[in-house]
């Protein structure tokens, strides 16, 4: 469900997300509220990108967290690239189960909140997404 958005518009949205994040930080909002506000005020932004922006991370930083998770858990080498993360964030492709699990753990939320799993078919009692069992559901999604 990728929507074509110009580079100029994406840059405007990134700046707007930075302002939302700064406003939220000043007000003491938790990350999940910042991500929700980004999605509310910038409806073209998909959840995965909103969560990255809520954390204030570049794609390189987000991938660094995924790589660190793979390394710490001895899961092999994370081969994702910034362009791959970009395609995931823009809904052009879906990450594999292992990467989806890693992204959930890095952001500390479930796959529904990241837009990686349809809400009607995901249940917190289901086993981990990845073959390595990296995903552990959180109870509230709060930071």
Compressed to H and E, one letter per element, the order equals: HHHHHH
Low-confidence regions? 120-143
* Helical stretch tally: 6
How much β-strand is present in the residues? Answer: under 5%
Taken from the alpha-carbon principal axes, the silhouette is: globular
> What is the domain tally?
1
Rg estimate, integer Å? 15 Å
Based on DSSP secondary structure assignment, what is the total number of beta strands? 0
Structural class designation: mainly alpha
Distance between the first and last residues' Cα: 29 Å
Overall pLDDT metric = 82
Summarize the main sheet: none
Helix proportion range: 40-55%
Structure in words:
- By secondary structure, the chain is mainly α.
- It has one domain.
- It is about 50% helix and about 0% strand.
- It has 6 helices and no strands.
- The longest helix is centred in the first third of the chain and has 21 residues, at about 5-25.
- The radius of gyration is 15 Å and the shape is globular.
- Mean pLDDT is about 80; it is low at about 120-143.
Task: Write a brief structural summary.
The protein is mainly alpha-helical and 143 residues long.
List the helices and strands and how they pair.
Blueprint: H1 7-27, H2 31-41, H3 47-55, H4 59-72, H5 82-89, H6 97-107
Helix pairs in contact: 1-2, 1-3, 2-3, 4-6
Which properties best describe this structure?
mainly alpha, 6 helices, 143 residues, 0% strand, globular, 52% helix
């Amino acid at each position: 469900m990728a929507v074509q958005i110009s580079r100029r518009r994406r840059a405007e949205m990134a700046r707007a997300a930075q302002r939302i994040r700064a406003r939220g930080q000043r007000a003491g909002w938790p990350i999940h509220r910042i991500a929700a506000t980004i999605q509310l005020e910038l409806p073209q932004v998909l959840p995965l990108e909103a969560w990255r922006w809520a954390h204030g991370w570049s794609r390189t930083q987000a991938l660094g967290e995924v790589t660190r998770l793979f390394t710490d858990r001895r899961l092999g080498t994370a081969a994702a690239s910034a362009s791959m993360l970009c395609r995931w964030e823009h809904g052009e492709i879906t990450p594999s189960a292992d990467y989806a699990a890693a992204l959930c753990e890095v952001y500390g939320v479930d796959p529904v909140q990241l837009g990686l799993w349809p809400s009607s078919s995901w249940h917190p009692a289901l086993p981990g997404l990845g073959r390595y069992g990296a995903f552990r559901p959180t109870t509230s999604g709060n930071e």
